[in-house]
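Ticket #4471: structure output looks truncated?

Reporter: J.K.
Steps to reproduce: submitted the chain below (309 residues) through the standard prediction queue, then opened the result file.
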Amino acid sequence: MSDAPWLERVRAGFRKTSERLGDNLTGLFTKAALDSETLDEIEEALIASDLGPATAATIRARLAAERFERGLTEHAVREIVAQELEKVLAPVAVPLEISAFPRPQVILVVGVNGSGKTTTIAKLGHLLLEQDYGVLLAAGDTFRAAAIEQLRIWADRIGVPLISGPEGGDSSAVVFDGVKKATAEGIDTLIVDTAGRLQNKKGLMDELAKIRRVLGRLNPAAPHDVVLVLDATTGQNALSQIEVFQEVAGVTGLVMTKLDGTARGGVLVAAAEKFKLPIHAIGVGEGINDLRPFDAREIARAIAGLERE
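Returned output as attached by the reporter:
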């Protein structure tokens, strides 16, 4: 599949974010001098664009150190913003690698209800199918009948088997059956949906601990990945979710969804800067192909509102 349509979707997805950045910067380039007050205002504009205080401070320091021979322009600031964002994003733009032996590689997917977790599981499965990996889905969110049914519909759509149990059943039993089936049939990856009831943190932690114990008996290396799905439209709230799920689930990587249509895509940068966790993929649409790994340079320039080079 050509990258061109994907890159077009990415740029379209980040358009509102780049427009928000532009709106926040508007009016700051009419001053003759790049004085401390102007630098403070630019830093505040970057923070207001959800890029995070650490990244904003770095960009401010870079602007203060630059010599603008022709005066400060919005384009010059956007170029520096893009360069600094790329430095933050490049180390975390890490696709999910399927390398576990023996198979299957067990991927626990966690996230609050409403984050797009179930559909992200299907899209992640589709992405792995494209790379010729065998995929099995496990409906471990047994407390929501809708989650089981939704995952079944998606499994049928992408053409992969699904392991499920009764509503309200033991999620660790579903995971146990999933590992047994994947092992017996030589399936490369087992992607497990988990409950998203963050309001009951203790219950969720106990449930995940039980899943880990069951996995440990079958394969001491499992789960190989604990992927947190984040909804970009929640903005800074996504950062608090990372903190909680790191504590509850031991998150090893992130997927950020719903970057299309939100002005808060800068939170991708804030998450990278603060937590430095691998960001395996981003979602910029509802289609099955709209979740993919990303190029740090392309994303940085899209957020900064610069055209492709």
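Triage note (M.O.): checked the attachment and the full token line is present. The chain has twelve helices and eight strands.
Status: closed, working as intended.
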